[in-house]
Amino acid sequence: MSMPTTPTTLDRFLTPAHRALWQAADDFAAQEIQPRVQRMEGAPHRVDRKIARLLAGRRWFGVTVPEAFGGMEAGHVAKTILIHRLARVSGAVAATLQASLIPVAALLHYGTGEQHATLLPSVADGSVLMSIAVTEPDQGGHIGGMASAAEWDGRAWVLTGVKAHVGNSHIADLHVVVARTSPAGTRTSRALTAFLVQGDQRGVNLVRHTSKLGLHGFSYGQISFDRVRISPNNVLGEIGQGFEAAQSSSILYGRPNLTAVSLGLHETAVSLTARYVSNRPRYQGKLADLSVIQDRLGQMSARLIMARILAYHAVDMLDRRLPCDDELLAAKVLGHDLAFETGNDAMQLHAANGLAEDFPIQRVWRDMQTTYAPAGTGEVQRRRLAENLLQEEIGTKRTPWSVLHAGRAQPPIADEAVRV
Ligand SMILES: Cc1cc2nc3c(=O)[nH]c(=O)nc-3n(C[C@H](O)[C@H](O)[C@H](O)COP(=O)(O)OP(=O)(O)OC[C@H]3O[C@@H](n4cnc5c(N)ncnc54)[C@H](O)[C@@H]3O)c2cc1C
After folding, report:
1. Atom 44 (ligand 1): residue with closest C-alpha?
2. Rounded to the nearest whole angstrom, what is the distance from the C-alpha of residue 420 to the centroid of ligand 1?
3. Cα–Cα–Cα angle for 18, 22, 25, nearest 5°?
């Protein structure tokens, strides 16, 4: 396998094994994904099942699963490489991979030895695809406002509620569902519990999948739970630890995953635009000859360089077990914002052609809109960053998740850990 040309900006973050993974992701995207993109775009209602099977065939759902359970144990930079490189070709495929990696964090960090032994090998080989179901139609990003509840009936937990925008909702085999288990008035940090719920359990119903603005082929829809019985063996973590499980998975995996999706889309927006203005005739030359166009391109290039550094710096810190919650939050919000600004420039430079379905920039721009909300909106990231800053000021900052979970099912730093 030939080594890819990776941006020199990222040199300090990439080992030879990372570069090999980068090449493997690019080859896979070119051979397996590119030929499917148009079909997925043309059927926005359809949920694509084949993509997840192809990803499973590469064992990429196990990128952070320890080798002892059949995973790649390759770490967070490796995970970012996979999502970033797939997103260059298809935001939907990158989303399919990333959405099922977030619940893996919850399982790794909160699962019992028995749950690890039973589930992680199937997660690693892709035969069990996971989802994480936290958001509800009305509560949105306010986890503490959730209405879904589970009650103990003496033999099992009985779960009722509706979850919305659940990534891989319609293809997942196993859902990590967070629900209320304490009476009203209990502090959110102790009021919720995470459960492992099989997709085919009685009372689990998928709400008909509807088309969305972007990520065609990827399902992020609603699941309703109607008196679903859950054995105590399928409680993930302790009763009352659901908020912790949801929040830490979202910060340590969700934020960087979405940052990587934004980065892949950002890269494609820049390259499509550079190609477009280089080929579009104007006066005696091309659009790209005009200094005003070059000024915009230069700004797009500067944003992309910043977005790359942000994305890889944050996950490199995570692999090095450094405290980096703030870097993960900052990379998520700025990674989206930088991509979004570039996306708008790209659309304007394509002008009328940018609106036509045979020009891929409109797909990339639509997909970019989808990285704002998941794993916390911009307001949520900035609020949390401000809270951390202010708590630091008065000396009450709590231990970051990146420190609390460092060493717990984290990969080794060794280069040879990354296998393709
Ligand atoms: C592609 C995609 C995949 C997703 N995957 C998953 C998944 O796998 N699992 C899952 O559980 N959820 C998932 N989500 C849902 C996602 O987590 C939510 O969209 C997100 O938490 C925000 O909720 P909301 O969209 O309902 O917006 P709301 O929370 O209703 O917010 C609406 C607006 O108000 C602002 N706002 C809200 N509260 C505040 C506040 N306190 N201060 C300031 N501003 C505020 C928000 O920033 C936003 O601009 C996904 C969403 C998308 C789009």
Report:
1. 379
2. 34
3. 135
Separation between Cα atoms, residue 261 and residue 242, nearest integer Å: 26
Ligand 1 centre from 95 Cα, in Å? 16
pLDDT per residue as tens digits for the range 272-312 = 999 999 999 999 999 999 999 999 999 999 999 999 999 99
Q: Which tokens in the block code for residue 77? A: 């930079």
Q: Nearest to residue 225, comparing CAs of 153, 264, 175, 272?
A: 175
Residue nearest atom 5 in ligand 1 by C-alpha distance:
167
Q: Is the pTM of this model over 0.85?
A: yes
Whether the CA torsion 18, 50, 116, 155 is positive or negative: it is: positive
Chain segment 111-124, per-residue pLDDT in tens: 999 999 999 999 99
Instruction: Enter the DSSP assignment of 128.
Output: S
| Distance from residue 36's CA to the centre of ligand 1 (Å) | 29
Three-state SS annotation for 325-372: HHHHHHHHHHHHHHHHHHHHHHHHHHHHHHHCCCCCHHHHHHHHHCCC
Instruction: Tell me the chain's radius of gyration from C-alpha atoms.
Output: 21
Give the CATH superfamily of 8-124: Acyl-CoA dehydrogenase/oxidase, N-terminal domain (1.10.540.10)
- Distance, CA of 263 to CA of 336 (rounded, Å): 8
- When the candidates are 2.40.33.20, 1.10.375.10, 1.10.533.10, 1.20.140.10, the CATH number that belongs to 245-409 is 1.20.140.10
**Strand, helix or coil at 44?**
coil
Q: How many CB atoms lie within 10 A of CB 298?
A: 11
CATH code for residues 130-240: 2.40.110.10
